[in-house]
Structures are given as C-alpha cells and as structure tokens.
Amino acid sequence: AEDLKHKRKVAVKVLRPELAAVLGAERFVQEIKTTASLQHPHILPLFDSGTAGPAGEFLYYVMPYIEGETLRDKLNRETQLGIEEAVRIATEVA
C-alpha cells in the first residue's frame, strides 16, 4: 500500500471478519500489542493499527514495506538452508 501522508510504501496486514470469527479477534489484537512492544534492529516497527469498514469489522496494522524474499519463500524454494546461512539468520533475529 502507499502511505499518502508520508509518501512511503507500507505493508498492511488485515484480519478478515470470517477469519476473526474462527480464530477470534483477540489473538490478532494480541499480535498487534506484541508487535508494538518489540524493539530490535531486525524486527519491523508498527506504524499504525485500527479498524476499518462500515461496522469496524476489519482489524489491521501497518508496518514498513520491505522488498525482497521472505524467509518462508526462501525455505519453500530451497527446502534446506546451509549451516552458515542458518546460523547467520538465527544470529540476526536473536
């Protein structure tokens, strides 16, 4: 998405109402609170969060958009990481 006010690309995570009905919105709200409390060079900060839709049925949060491959995509593509790369990634997120 595009943050028009600040002229930057952002990623918006939205909890659809049908998923909220199954998982419970509380879990998503807890994820928002946890994300907001984290401060680490390798963890993206939370820019904003809230509700949208006519009845506020969509919960969302906004984070910086980062171009590139996710770790999940990399593992799906490569199946297994080399030891050096796995240690490097684990060290960066620890």
Portion in beta strands: 15-25%
For the record, what CATH class of the domain at 2-66 applies?
Alpha Beta
Number of helices: 4
Number of strands: 4
- Give the end-to-end Cα distance, rounded to a whole number of Å: 29 Å
Uncertain stretches? none
Using the coordinates shown, work out and report the CATH topology of the domain at 2-66. Phosphorylase Kinase, domain 1
Provide the gyration radius in Å: 16 Å
How are helices and strands ordered from N to C? EEHHEEHH
Shape: globular
Overall average pLDDT: 91
Largest sheet: 4 strands, antiparallel
Structural class: alpha+beta
Annotated CATH homologous superfamily of the domain at 2-66: Phosphorylase Kinase, domain 1
Give the second-level CATH assignment, the architecture of the domain at 2-66. 2-Layer Sandwich
Q: Strand order within the widest sheet?
A: 1-2-4-3
Helicity, in percent?
40-55%
Care to describe what's here?
The chain has 94 residues and is of the alpha+beta class. It has a domain of 65 residues: Phosphorylase Kinase, domain 1 (2-Layer Sandwich), CATH 3.30.200. It is built from 4 helices and 4 strands; from the N terminus they run ββααββαα. The protein is globular and about 50 Å long. The chain starts with a strand and ends with a helix. The model has no long low-confidence stretch (mean pLDDT 91).
